[in-house]
Specification:
Structural class: alpha+beta
Number of helices: 9
Strand content: 15-25%
Bound molecules: adenosine-5'-diphosphate, magnesium ion
Largest sheet: 5 strands, antiparallel
Oligomer: single chain
Length: 289
Amino acid sequence: MSAKFERLEKIGEGTYGTVYKARNRDTQAIVALKRVRLDEDDEGVPSSALREICLLKELRHVNIVRLHDVLHSDKKLTLVFEFCEQDLKKYFDSLNGEAMDQNTVKSFFKQLLRGLAFCHEHNVLHRDLKPQNLLINKAGELKLADFGLARAFGIPVRCYSSEVVTLWYRPPDVLFGAKIYNTSIDVWSAGCIFAEMANSGRPLFPGNDVDDQLRRIFKLLGSPTDENWPGVAKFPEFKPFGPFNPCNDISSAVPKLNSKGVDLLVQLLVCNPSLRLSSSDALSHSYFD
Ligand code: ADP
Ligand code: MG
């Protein structure tokens, strides 16, 4: 792979490329190497992408996967990350139907929000938060991965493995065609992941396509109207979903979550993006006391 790293095993195939576990030949340190694939007919790595990626090297926080280095050579881009043992999706799978401890849910979610708040303070959006992009190390630290790549390379439509990118964590405004420029998109995704953790890995809104996704959201949270979401009909891809659903009791969707947790979740999963809590306000919610 390179003179500096000994490639060990493939650990993931993601949206932008392949991830390998590797060892630094000089220091013996274990890292994760991400080979970013660029289009065949491309002129190599766009300079805008390189600029974005290099900014991420400065984004240092315990709850963000550390980007140690960016290696750029003959049209190839390799990102050198700190290594984490597993991602949250694999963690869910390893539960094997067992319930996730609600204190672990709280700890993971707090770490998720801390990482997110830090990024948002630095004007970096994630835009593709999902369990596969949350890494967990041996010490029980949760770290956001894949940050900033959406801005560097564009919002993914398909994964490299030609799997369709999941819609499960996308907010209704984005599903209605809103442009993804706002921190509120990540807050929605975080809320979905919070509920999924509280339910030991069962996704909250596992839609099959955009319409199914929206239908599932409105079935639980109630249909959007001009009263609860002024201007909703003006979104480029808005369509009304009849018949009208009232807002359901969210606690029934997360039976193991305590009442403070439900109260927090309700404030994250708000269809109108301007009324959604911010990640830093979420951190000061009494659920975390
Ligand atoms: P993509 O942008 O292509 O989705 P990711 O960074 O999400 O790539 O990586 C794909 C998968 O590889 C992740 O879901 C995770 O399982 C694994 N992975 C990524 N980065 C690391 C890392 N630093 N340590 C351990 N595993 C990782
Ligand atoms: Mg990913």
